[in-house]
Amino acid sequence: MQQHLADKNIALDLVRVTEAAALAATVQTGRGDKDAVDQAAVNAMRIAFQALHIRGTVVIGEGEKDHAPMLFNGEHVGYGDGPEMDVAVDPVDGTSCVAFGRPNGLAAAGIALKGSMFNPGHSYYCMKLVVPEEAAGIADLDAPAGEMAVKVAKALGKPVGELNVFILDKPRHEKLAAEIRAAGARVMLHAEGDIAGSLMVVDPFSNIDMLIGIGGTPEAIITACGLKGSGGQMLTRLAPKTKEERDAIEADGIDLNAVRSLDDLVKTDQCFFACTGVTNGELLQGVVYKKGYAVTSSLTTRGRTGTRRLIQAFHDRVKLSKMSTVRY
To answer: Would you state the pLDDT for residue 1?
Structure first.
């Protein structure tokens, strides 16, 4: 019965959750207040989850790091009927992008059958490698970055000089970027947003061919829901930034040295993903507010079928505001 209930494409309902978060967060665009961006998105997302016909438990939530009053790890969400699901959320990936009016902010959520999501405990950061379907069989997190770029280019049938590699623009990645450039590939630096970057690797409309570098561990689990069914591969290894984080992970009993693939992060193809642009980005357009309506651009995926849907929606602001306590 559980499996039968999950056969429904819940991604089409889940997108309403990310739309709500994006619509609310956009109100705070450019105001310079990251906390206000996050709080607006969390409030709207939590309310929207109440209409989703699942019995959900948050596995990846706002977490202890954010001192979250809602959407915290272990919280139960959903209407309370339907399949039991693990839930992973990032109400806004790229709060700084939204707060300071920069591109690539988005709201994201993934769900999968209960017990199928890897719980990273107190891990906040991990090393990631994401490659498209053509290179899935040669992905190697331990290979030198330049060597990996050459192999991915060969698998894609293109000169390495035409390979575009997404890397977060952080001091920790200076050596990594230099290695990739030395191999002849192009480095595409982005301030934030490795959920979007990972999805662009398997997006037929994107020119991003590979992602590599250290990013958020919770974001990796959410991303895994979106990559399942695409044929692409993501490899990860936990990469604690502080001794306190390392000690906490070891206390959780999690192997720090293990390389985890897409199927280790989400063990079932009965999973669903949705994201909605908050600010304009390469993957999705941001929310556009007009006098009486708003326009959102979203992406949904379904692990079992590999289907990806791009959804543009027009929202009546007056009617939405009457139906919700959230200001749209």
So the answer is: 39
Q: Are 163 and 186 in contact (CB under 8 A)?
A: yes
In the numeric block, the tokens 């009486």 are attached to 292
Say what the pLDDT of residue 3 is. 46
273 bridge partner residues: 110, 301
- Element housing 195 (H / E): helix 194-201
Those residues whose C-beta lies under 8 Å from the C-beta of residue 9, and which sit 6 or more positions away, are: 272, 302, 307
Report the C-alpha gap between 303 and 321 in whole angstroms.
Answer: 33
The pair of structure tokens assigned to 37 is 């961006």
User: What is the model's pLDDT at position 62?
Assistant: 78
Q: Could you report the per-residue pLDDT of 173-229, keeping only the tens digit for each? A: 999 999 999 999 999 999 988 999 999 999 999 999 999 999 999 999 999 999 999
pLDDT digits (tens, 9 = 90+) for 127-151: 999 999 999 999 999 999 999 999 9
How far from the centroid of its chain's Cα atoms is residue 139's Cα? 20
Distance between CA 253 and CA 231 in Å, rounded? 31
3-class SS of residue 119: coil
Strands 308-316 and 186-190 come out as unpaired
Neighbours of 115 (CB within 10 A): 13
